[in-house]
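Task card 7
Instruction: Convert sequence to structure tokens.
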Amino acid sequence: QQARIQQIIDENLDRLRMPGVLSVRPGFRMRDGWITDERAIVVTVASRTDAVASVLERAQTDAGASELPGTLDGVPVDVRTASPAKAAQLAELAAPSARAELREPPPAPDQGGVPVFPDERVLDTERTLARVPPPEATETLAKPAKERLAYTAPPATPLKPVSGEIELELSASPDSGWAVLSAFLAGTQKSLTVGLYDFTSAHVLDRFETAVAGKQVVFVLDHPAKNPTADQTDDQTVANLKKALGSTFEQAWALERADPHASAWIFPSAYHIKVAVRDSNTVWLSSGNWNNSNQPDIDPVHNPGDAAEARTRDRDWHVVIHDAALAKTFESYMKHDYAVAEQHQAPASAALETELLAQPLAETPPFDHFTAAETITDQVTITPVLTPDPGVYVDAVRALIESASTSLHLQFQYIEPPSKPTDASAPFSALIDSVIARQKAGVEVRVIMSEFESAGYLEQLQQLGLDVVHNVRLQNNVHNKGIVVDGSRTLVSSQNWSTAGTLENRDAGVIIDSARVAAYYDGIFQHDWEHLATQHARED
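Output:
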């Protein structure tokens, strides 16, 4: 069908080429804000000016006099208005140039990225070219030339499962995450080793400074654009910690390609890990950063007055694992990252401060209830899964998914299929394929993603075979990256589902074999599916 629709488009390009029509491609029809399984010709228009609005009105009523038809050869024409990000993307497609290369790799969905469709045809070249920023506006996007270093893992540190009777502390944000993290930090006796993407929360900083005073701290931190909810920048966090902790604080900026503090790079777009090891015997691991979105200073479980703020904070899963063997594995990895990064720090004067464009504050529907943190001791098996260690995450998570016989529940900030599948992205594509295979095998598949999973990304997943119409819902403020299989096995992790997140960046997770652990996180998932997630997607 896709090929037939492309043929119809090719045969009618002149009919579709009219002022205000930016592009055309095969896709799926949207109805009432949600994707259907009906194939369509997707037409993207520049804006809802009076002229274009008139065209839209006539097209949507199938008026025969309209230049933009409601159908072509029996295929519906689905008209969408380009967001600024989509218009900019089409402008670059219309005028491929060195300036466009500065935007590679394209931004992730949560950073304003929109999906790429290789078969999309740009029609209104004049209008799209007008949206290309002048050279001076894009020069700051250029990344300084850096040496790329080969990734290495710490020697003699196999990523093997641990089994036994292990104590675990289970929590989720915005319900109970901060109380658990605060207590974890306060319990530090000798040392803390941390790998983190973002640390911009004042209340976490205050607790951290008090908890680790006089203890040995090793810290590897990325330098992302400033989070819209930040109390201070990552640079200011580090400056405060150096002043407060002195010689007991050892810190290095992660070797990420765009990081102005790093003179070489290993990780192409993020040092995205969220792990802390306390006293070489306990691990805190999460999908969330130490910022106000992921670790809000609220306690809606015990304070009903915090319920309103919880609706604008992020859904994340966290786990504290009391196991020395696992702790030493993660600590070895982070200390190795520190040792390598410490040799490639750029002069302080090279640092540049960047900020994300603040997104409108998103809000979920009211929570039905909040889930308290829970501490359990259970006979469990825990498997560490790190990237970019070759094959570790993708092989283990694919096996986890393929083991599903009754239910497969996934909650991710987004799923970003490769726009042009390659050998390099194939292991990530295999993860998506494994979910679709479980769906076809009759397993109950439910997928929750955030508001950043726009209509175009949903179309891509539908094209691959995922039943988006019935098995997917979107929930504002999802930052989680978790899976529950058959009510018995759970993935808690920081890996976003993209090629970079599953294969290239530094990320960490654990697969926990325990029905008690699965019941905890699946209970939260079911709450979100029933009460917070909906079927309405924004246009690209």
